[in-house]
Amino acid sequence: xxxxxxxHYRAEDGTKRGPMDSRWxxxxxxxxxxxxxxxPGWNRDGSVNDRYPNPHxxxxxxxxxxxxxxxxxxxxxxxxxxxxxxxEGGIEYYCSDGTWIVLGFPIWDKGKTxxxxxxxxxxxxxxxxxxxxxxxxxxxxxDEGTQGQPGKYTAEVVDGDITRxxxxxxx
Length: 171
Known about the structure:
By secondary structure, this protein is mainly beta. It has one helix at residues 78-86; strands spanning 9-11, 16-17, 20-21, 28-31, 42-43, 59-62, 91-94, 100-103, 114-116, 122-132, 140-142, 149-158, 161-169.
């Protein structure tokens, strides 16, 4: 492997390192934003620099986002297979109908496609609405008409599903 400026790499400890920076007259790379060659760094081949060692170990592969894998497990390089097996945030399996399902215990079939489960998409919405309660049942929120008590709401949504709504009456 040969490091390149601006790219990300996976270190031995599994962390994402980069983007890389260097100077034309040095054969040493460090992470962009560091002050330069006196910071912990790596040699051009990704090995740990003896003069400026770092706590992350050698760089072992170009960084691949494990949530974006679309290749069969058997066709992945050995390092990516190891990283996927070691991932602790959940594994998804690609179904023939085009969907991904979460697996509790993957069998790591070489002909199947697996990926790390992506982080859930979280959104928060706020707005004004009116709240009404009919016959002591669940409150209804509406943004139409003049019935009900005016107020403001905050809705938290995870992967398109409402997980929490807070409504406060206007003063």
